[in-house]
Amino acid sequence: MSRARLAVIGGTGFEDPSILGRPRETTTITTRLGAATVSLYALDGVTVAYLSRHGPGHSVPPHRIDYRANIAALAALGVQRVVATAAVGSLRRELPPGTVVVADQFLDFTRQRPVTFFEDDAVVHTDFSEPYCPQIRAALVATIRQQGLHVQETGCYVGMEGPRYETPAEVRALAALGGDVVGMTGLPEAVLAREAGICYAVVAVVTNLGAGLSASSLSHQEVVAVMDERRPRLLRAILQALASLPEARGCPCAAAPGRGLVASML
To answer: Mutual orientation of helices 220-244 and 134-146 as an angle, nearest 10°?
Structure first.
């Protein structure tokens, strides 16, 4: 099996890996926790793995994605750094559609998904003082600005179970708790990546105002339209950010206490 140190997890609007051209290899990686299909690309002499979170044709809804299998597959591939994309709703009018948020905090309100690799007799407590990799975040902010996109360099991502959208009351409550954007797929993905010792950052694209902040109702078509418009520049920014990172990881992500235990599960 080929190896890759860098990876992109494509969310809504990024389901089709052909946006990167012709893959060098597409493989299904099977681990003890499940299987995931990953495409490998040679970009400027560097191998980059691409995983479509929702599967081909956006066929898997948020609450049924096998997040553990996805992260385990990337870990088995040797991935050390991941940038994920996410379509999100805004909890604040000052973050209008089209804004790109490079989140630095999260609130997890998912409730039915496996949230950790550590079950049975494993007792591991992972630090989340910096939930997203600061090295990748800094690189992303710089490259997204170079692409001329409106970027918010900090923000709190709120993870909800889905697949329904939030109510106006929930939008008000989540904003009052400190949330900035809300989505259905960023968690437990970020948690699992840290447990596996993988550097992880999310590029959250605001596709709509949350319920109650806009006069119109929410629709998936609205989400897709914004992502389609932003996709080319975002993809360039993500790849530039990954390519700009030094090989040595100067961040807390790789020091996750359970990294070795996760490796033994693959």
So the answer is: 110
